[in-house]
C-alpha cells in the first residue's frame, strides 16, 4: 500500500520502526508500505484510522493523539470477531464494522465492540459515517440512520435531535440504492439510475442544491439528473461525484481549493472539474479538505485541496486549487493502484499486481451497480423448479425477500439499452416493460403465485411510503399492475388489486401528479393494459350479483385510480392519445334504478360525510346508453321537483308544464317574448307547445316547434350568426347586430330541446360542443369551419423557421370584418420561427374564444339555466353533439328489421311488400325525408337506428286518394290499402315531400 498525509511516515502501526521505508524522509511525500498481511479495506477520519487484514478478518484501529504540539497516530489495537468483518467506516471518534453476514458492530473509544441492532434483523450491505452520525443500507434496500441530527444529517426531520438506535429513512425506502456515504454533518445516497439524494448541513453548498439552507430530509440533486453518476465522495464541507463517463464534478466549500476549479470559492451547484475533463477518471475520494481522483488507464492519482499535512502527496505544505498528478514511489514498479482512500488529513492507495489487480478492480466497479436482491429470469427459473422440491422453504424465503421490498423490485427491470434508465424522470420511467412482462409471465405455478401475492399484500404494500423522494420510488406503482395482470389471468388477485389501488391513493398529492406523468410516459399499449387491470376487477365486482359491493370502498378506490389515470392522459397532450373508449366499460349496462340512486347520491355528496362509490363522478367508465339514461333520469327528477304547488283556492291551479302558445306566422317573436317573461324554474318542467290557439297537447307539436323554430333562427336572414364560405356551418359573430339577449334565449331553447329529449338542427362546428363543455379548441377545429384559413396557418407552422420573418406577418387578425391585435401591448409584433406556434394558437383562440366571448357566454348562461352543468358534463363533446343533433349513419335495413305490423298488416302482406319495394327505390334524400316524416327528425339518434322502432298500421276509412300519415311521437306509419305499387309509391313520395306528416 501507499500512504501520504498526517503522520503517514510512521506507518500507522502497520510496520515495525526498523522496517519503515527510509528512502523518503519528508513527511509530505508518498510512502511505500508492505504490511505483514494484505489489507482488505481501510478507512480514516480526522481522529481515527482503521483497517481490515486478510488474516481471517481481524480489525485494527489507531486513534490520533496530540504529542509535542502535533497529532500522531496512537498505538494500533487489533481485535478478532466471531464473524468475518468485510468493511468498516469511521466517524470522529467511533468505528462501525460490517460483518460478512450483514451484522453491525460499533467500536467506541474504549475499543469494545457493541452490536448495533437493525429492526427486524435486516442484513446490512453498506455502512457510512459522518463525524457524529452513521448510515446503513440493508439488503432489502432500506436506509437506517442514527447519531446526532444537529443539521439534519439523519434525514429524520427537525423534530428528531438525535437517535440512539438505527431509524428508517422512509422517504428513500423504494429507491434502488447502490451507495450511501457521509462526512462531516451531511449525507448522500446514490440510486442505480444515477439519482443523487443529499441531506444535512449545507452551509457551504455541499448538498449541491444552489443554496446554503440545511435539509432535514433527503432531497434530489436535480443538477445531477441525467449525468449518469456512479460514485459519490464526501469531505467535511465539500462533495465530489463521478459519472459513468469518467467526469468529476465538485461542489461545496472551496476554501482550500478542494473543488479543483482553480479558485478558492464555494460552489453551490455541481461543477465539472475542467482539468480532469477527458481523463476518464475511475475513482474519487475525499478527505476533510482535499480530494483525490484516480485514472486507471494511466495509473495516475490526481490531488487538490488542503496540503498543510502533506495529504496531497506533492512534497510541499501548500494548498492546491487544480488537480495535479502525484509522483508515486519507485517501489511500485509494475504494480497498479487498486483502490484509493482519503479521510481526515490522510490519503491511501491499495496496490495490486497483474490478473489479481484486474479482478479486484473490476469487482469494485461492478459492486457499484449491484442491488442486493434483484428479480431476474434465473431466480424465477429456480423458483419454478424448486417449488415441488425440498428447497421450497428456501424459495419461499427468497420470494418474501424480493416481493416485500419496493427498492428490489424497482431496480430489477431497468432499461439498460443505451443507458436509458439513467434518463429516469417524470417523463421516463427507466423500466423495460418487455423484461417485466417476460418475468411475470414465468410465474405460472400456483404455489409461487400464492407466495408472491401474500408477500405483496402483507409486507410490501403496508411498507410503502406515501411521499417517496424522487421518481424511482414510484416505479413500483407501474410494476404492480403488470403482476396483477398475471394474477388475474389465473382468477387471482381481486383483493390485491383493490389493495394496490388503495396504496396508490395514499400517495402525497404531489407524488400522485408525478405518477400521472409516469403513466402517460408509458407506451399506449402498456398503459392500455394497465387500465384494463383496474377495469377487469371493477367489472367483476359489478357483475357479481351482490348490489352492496357496488358501493363499497374497494370500488371507490378502483374508480379513483382510473380517474387519476384518465385525467393524466387528458392533460398529457401526448400523441397518439389514449382514446376515451379505453376507460369505458362498454359491455356493462347500468340498471336505471341504480343510476337513479347514483344521481341522487351525486347531488347530495356535498351535504353529507364520507360518500360511497358514486359512478356519476367518473362518467368515463360509463357507456353512452348509461350516460343518456343518467341525463333522462335527471330530467325526469327535475320535472317532478319543479312541479308548482296547487293553490288553496279551487279556482287557482298552476300549470304542471312549461307552456308556450305560439303562432306559426310569428313563431320566433312569440317564442322569444314568452321565454323572456318566464321564470327560469319553469324551464325545468315538461314543455308543452300550442300552435295557433289549438288546445291539443301532443309531442307532434313539440317536435314541429323545434324543427321550424331552429330552421328560422339559423337562416342567414335571422342575422344572429355568421357562416363559413360554403354556408354549411354557422358561428357566433364578432360584432353582433342583434340584442345579446337573443343569444341567451337561443341557449335556453337548445337547453329545452336537450332537456325534453328532442334532437334539433345545429349546424355548428365541433368547437361549439367543445366550448359548451370547457374543452380547449385547436387548429383542427378551425379546419372544419374554415379550411382555407386553417390551411394558411398550417402553412406558417410548416414553413422553415429561418424564412418565416420574410413573410412579414404580424400578430394581428382579420375575422368577421373585425381587425384586432393579438398582442395589444406590442402592436406590430412580427411572427418569427420562434413564436409562430404562439401566433397560430393566438389566432385560433381569437376566432373561437376572444371574438365571441360576450355572445357565447350569454348562450352558455341560457343553456345552463335549463340543464345542469354537472350532468351535461358527463358527456364528451362528440357524445353531446350526437345526443343534441343525432348522427347521419343511416342503416335502412335495420329500420326494416325493427318494424312491426299491427291490425291486418303483417310482414308478407302485399301492401307491405309493395311499400318496402317502393322505399328501396327512393333516393337517399327521399329516405331521409321519410325519416323526418315518420319521427319529426331527419337524423339518426346517437345510439343508432335500433332506437327507431316503426309500427305500421292500416289507415282506416281511407281511399286510393289518401296519403300515408304518421304519428311522429310514436313513430307510427298509417298506411292506406292501395291497389297497386305504383299508387303507393306516388302517394308516399308526395307525403314525404310536402305534407311532412304533421
TrEMBL record:
<dbReference type="GO" id="GO:0061630">
    <property type="term" value="F:ubiquitin protein ligase activity"/>
</dbReference>
<feature type="repeat" description="RCC1">
    <location>
        <begin position="246"/>
        <end position="297"/>
    </location>
</feature>
<dbReference type="InterPro" id="IPR000569">
    <property type="entry name" value="HECT_dom"/>
</dbReference>
<feature type="active site" description="Glycyl thioester intermediate">
    <location>
        <position position="969"/>
    </location>
</feature>
<dbReference type="GO" id="GO:0005737">
    <property type="term" value="C:cytoplasm"/>
</dbReference>
<keyword id="KW-0833">Ubl conjugation pathway</keyword>
<feature type="repeat" description="RCC1">
    <location>
        <begin position="141"/>
        <end position="193"/>
    </location>
</feature>
<dbReference type="Pfam" id="PF00632">
    <property type="entry name" value="HECT"/>
</dbReference>
<feature type="repeat" description="RCC1">
    <location>
        <begin position="102"/>
        <end position="140"/>
    </location>
</feature>
<dbReference type="InterPro" id="IPR058923">
    <property type="entry name" value="RCC1-like_dom"/>
</dbReference>
<dbReference type="InterPro" id="IPR000408">
    <property type="entry name" value="Reg_chr_condens"/>
</dbReference>
<dbReference type="GO" id="GO:0016567">
    <property type="term" value="P:protein ubiquitination"/>
</dbReference>
<dbReference type="InterPro" id="IPR009091">
    <property type="entry name" value="RCC1/BLIP-II"/>
</dbReference>
<dbReference type="GO" id="GO:0006511">
    <property type="term" value="P:ubiquitin-dependent protein catabolic process"/>
</dbReference>
<feature type="repeat" description="RCC1">
    <location>
        <begin position="194"/>
        <end position="245"/>
    </location>
</feature>
<keyword id="KW-0677">Repeat</keyword>
<dbReference type="InterPro" id="IPR051709">
    <property type="entry name" value="Ub-ligase/GTPase-reg"/>
</dbReference>
<dbReference type="Pfam" id="PF25390">
    <property type="entry name" value="WD40_RLD"/>
</dbReference>
<keyword id="KW-0808">Transferase</keyword>
<feature type="repeat" description="RCC1">
    <location>
        <begin position="299"/>
        <end position="353"/>
    </location>
</feature>
<dbReference type="InterPro" id="IPR035983">
    <property type="entry name" value="Hect_E3_ubiquitin_ligase"/>
</dbReference>
<protein>
    <recommendedName>
        <fullName>HECT domain-containing protein</fullName>
    </recommendedName>
</protein>
<feature type="domain" description="HECT">
    <location>
        <begin position="679"/>
        <end position="998"/>
    </location>
</feature>
Amino acid at each position: 500500500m501507499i500512504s501520504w498525509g498526517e503522520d503517514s511516515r510512521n506507518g500507522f502501526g502497520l510496520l515495525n520502526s526498523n522496517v519503515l521505508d527510509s528512502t523518503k524522509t519528508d513527511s509530505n511525500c508518498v510512502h511505500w508500505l508492505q504490511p505483514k498481511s494484505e489489507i482488505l479495506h481501510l478507512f480514516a477520519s480526522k481522529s481515527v484510522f482503521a483497517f481490515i487484514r486478510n488474516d481471517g478478518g481481524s480489525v485494527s484501529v489507531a486513534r490520533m493523539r496530540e504529542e509535542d504540539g502535533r497529532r500522531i497516530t496512537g498505538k494500533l489495537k487489533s481485535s478478532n470477531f466471531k464473524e468475518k468483518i468485510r468493511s468498516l467506516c469511521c466517524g470522529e471518534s467511533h468505528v462501525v464494522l460490517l460483518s460478512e453476514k450483514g451484522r453491525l458492530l460499533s467500536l467506541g473509544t474504549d475499543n469494545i465492540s457493541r452490536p448495533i441492532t437493525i429492526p427486524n434483523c435486516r442484513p446490512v450491505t453498506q455502512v457510512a459515517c459522518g463525524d457524529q452520525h452513521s448510515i446503513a443500507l440493508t439488503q432489502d434496500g432500506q436506509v437506517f440512520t442514527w447519531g446526532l441530527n444537529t443539521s439534519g444529517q439523519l434525514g429524520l426531520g427537525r423534530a428528531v435531535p438525535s437517535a440512539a438506535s438505527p431509524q428508517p429513512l422512509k422517504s428513500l425506502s423504494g429507491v434502488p440504492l447502490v451507495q450511501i456515504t457521509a462526512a462531516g454533518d451531511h449525507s448522500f445516497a446514490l440510486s442505480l439510475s444515477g439519482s443523487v439524494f443529499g441531506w444535512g448541513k449545507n452551509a457551504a453548498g455541499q448538498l449541491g442544491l444552489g443554496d446554503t439552507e440545511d435539509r432535514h430530509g433527503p432531497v434530489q440533486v436535480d443538477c445531477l439528473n441525467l449525468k449518469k453518476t456512479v460514485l459519490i465522495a464526501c469531505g467535511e464541507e465539500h462533495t465530489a461525484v463521478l459519472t459513468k463517463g469518467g467526469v468529476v464534478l465538485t461542489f461545496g466549500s472551496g476554501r482550500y481549493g478542494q473543488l479543483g476549479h482553480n479558485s478558492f470559492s464555494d460552489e453551490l451547484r455541481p461543477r465539472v472539474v475542467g482539468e480532469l475533463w477527458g481523463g476518464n477518471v475511475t475513482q474519487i475520494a475525499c478527505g476533510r479538505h482535499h480530494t483525490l481522483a484516480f485514472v486507471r488507464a494511466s495509473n495516475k492519482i490526481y490531488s487538490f485541496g488542503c496540503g498543510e499535512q502533506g495529504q496531497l502527496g506533492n512534497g510541499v505544505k501548500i494548498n492546491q486549487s487544480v488537480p495535479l498528478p502525484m509522483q508515486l514511489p519507485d517501489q511500485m514498479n509494475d504494480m497498479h493502484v487498486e483502490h484509493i482512500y482519503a479521510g481526515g488529513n490522510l490519503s491511501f492507495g491499495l496496490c495490486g499486481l497483474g490478473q489479481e489487480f484486474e479482478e479486484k478492480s473490476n469487482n469494485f466497479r461492478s459492486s457499484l451497480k449491484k442491488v442486493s436482491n434483484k428479480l431476474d429470469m434465473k431466480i424465477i427459473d429456480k423458483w419454478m423448479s424448486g417449488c415441488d422440491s425440498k428447497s421450497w422453504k428456501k424459495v419461499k424465503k427468497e420470494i418474501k425477500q424480493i416481493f416485500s421490498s419496493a427498492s428490489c423490485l424497482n431496480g430489477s427491470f431497468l432499461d439498460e439499452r443505451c443507458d436509458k434508465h439513467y434518463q429516469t424522470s417524470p417523463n421516463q420511467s427507466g423500466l423495460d416493460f418487455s423484461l417485466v412482462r417476460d418475468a411475470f409471465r414465468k410465474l405460472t405455478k400456483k404455489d409461487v403465485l400464492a407466495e408472491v401475492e401474500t408477500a405483496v399484500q402483507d409486507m410490501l404494500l403496508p411498507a410503502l411510503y406515501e411521499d417517496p423522494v424522487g421518481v424511482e420510488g414510484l416505479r413500483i406503482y407501474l410494476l404492480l399492475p403488470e403482476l396483477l395482470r398475471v394474477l388475474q389471468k389465473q382468477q387471482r388477485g381481486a383483493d390485491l388489486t383493490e389493495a394496490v389501488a388503495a396504496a396508490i391513493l395514499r400517495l402525497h398529492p404531489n407524488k400522485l401528479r408525478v405518477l400521472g406523468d409516469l403513466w402517460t410516459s408509458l407506451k399506449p399499449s402498456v398503459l392500455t393494459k394497465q387500465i384494463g387491470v383496474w377495469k377487469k376487477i371493477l367489472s367483476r365486482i359489478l357483475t357479481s350479483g351482490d348490489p352492496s359491493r357496488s358501493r363499497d370502498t374497494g370500488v371507490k378506490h378502483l374508480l379513483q385510480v382510473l380517474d387519476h389515470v384518465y385525467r393524466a392522459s387528458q392533460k398529457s397532450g401526448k400523441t397518439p392519445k389514449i382514446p376515451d373508449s379505453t376507460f369505458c366499460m362498454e359491455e356493462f349496462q347500468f340498471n336505471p334504478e341504480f343510476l337513479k340512486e347514483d344521481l341522487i347520491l351525486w347531488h347530495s355528496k356535498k351535504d353529507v360525510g364520507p360518500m360511497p362509490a358514486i359512478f356519476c363522478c367518473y362518467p368515463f367508465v360509463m357507456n353512452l346508453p348509461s350516460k343518456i339514461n343518467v341525463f333522462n333520469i335527471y330530467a325526469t327528477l327535475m320535472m317532478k321537483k319543479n312541479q308548482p304547488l296547487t293553490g288553496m283556492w279551487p279556482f287557482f291551479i298552476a300549470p304542471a308544464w312549461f307552456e308556450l302558445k305560439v303562432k306559426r306566422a310569428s313563431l320566433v317573436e312569440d317564442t322569444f317574448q314568452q321565454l323572456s317573461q318566464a321564470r327560469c324554474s319553469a324551464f325545468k318542467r315538461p314543455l308543452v307547445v300550442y300552435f295557433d290557439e289549438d288546445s291539443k297537447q301532443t309531442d307532434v307539436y313539440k317536435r314541429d316547434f323545434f324543427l321550424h323554430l331552429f330552421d328560422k333562427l339559423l337562416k342567414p336572414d335571422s342575422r344572429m350568426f355568421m357562416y363559413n364560405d360554403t354556408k354549411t356551418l354557422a358561428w357566433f359573430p364578432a360584432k353582433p347586430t342583434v340584442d345579446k339577449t337573443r343569444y341567451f334565449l337561443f341557449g335556453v331553447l337548445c337547453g329545452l330541446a336537450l332537456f325534453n329529449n328532442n334532437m334539433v338542427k345545429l349546424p355548428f362546428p365541433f368547437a361549439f360542443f367543445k366550448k359548451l363543455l370547457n374543452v380547449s379548441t385547436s387548429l383542427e377545429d378551425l379546419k372544419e369551419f374554415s379550411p382555407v384559413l386553417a390551411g394558411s396557418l398550417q402553412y406558417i407552422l410548416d414553413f422553415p423557421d429561418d424564412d418565416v420573418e420574410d413573410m412579414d406577418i404580424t400578430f394581428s387578425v382579420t375575422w368577421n370584418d373585425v381587425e384586432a391585435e393579438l398582442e395589444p401591448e406590442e402592436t406590430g409584433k412580427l411572427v418569427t420561427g420562434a413564436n409562430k406556434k404562439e401566433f397560430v394558437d393566438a389566432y385560433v383562440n381569437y376566432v373561437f374564444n376572444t371574438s365571441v366571448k360576450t355572445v357565447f357566454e350569454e348562450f352558455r348562461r341560457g343553456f345552463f339555466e335549463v340543464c345542469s352543468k354537472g350532468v351535461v358534463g358527463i358527456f364528451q363533446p362528440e357524445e353531446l353533439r350526437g345526443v343534441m343533433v343525432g348522427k347521419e349513419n343511416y342503416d335502412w335495413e335495420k329500420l326494416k328489421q325493427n318494424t312491426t305490423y299491427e291490425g291486418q298488416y303483417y310482414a308478407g302482406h302485399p301492401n307491405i311488400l309493395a311499400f318496402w319495394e317502393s322505399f328501396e327505390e327512393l333516393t337517399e334524400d327521399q329516405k331521409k325525408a321519410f325519416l323526418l316524416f315518420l319521427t319529426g327528425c331527419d337524423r339518426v339518434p346517437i345510439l343508432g337506428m335500433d332506437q327507431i322502432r316503426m309500427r305500421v298500421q292500416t289507415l282506416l276509412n281511407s281511399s286510393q286518394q289518401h296519403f300515408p300519415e304518421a304519428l311522429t311521437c310514436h313513430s307510427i306509419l298509417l298506411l292506406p290499402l292501395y291497389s297497386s305499387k305504383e299508387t303507393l309509391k306516388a302517394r308516399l313520395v308526395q307525403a314525404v315531400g310536402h305534407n311532412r306528416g304533421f
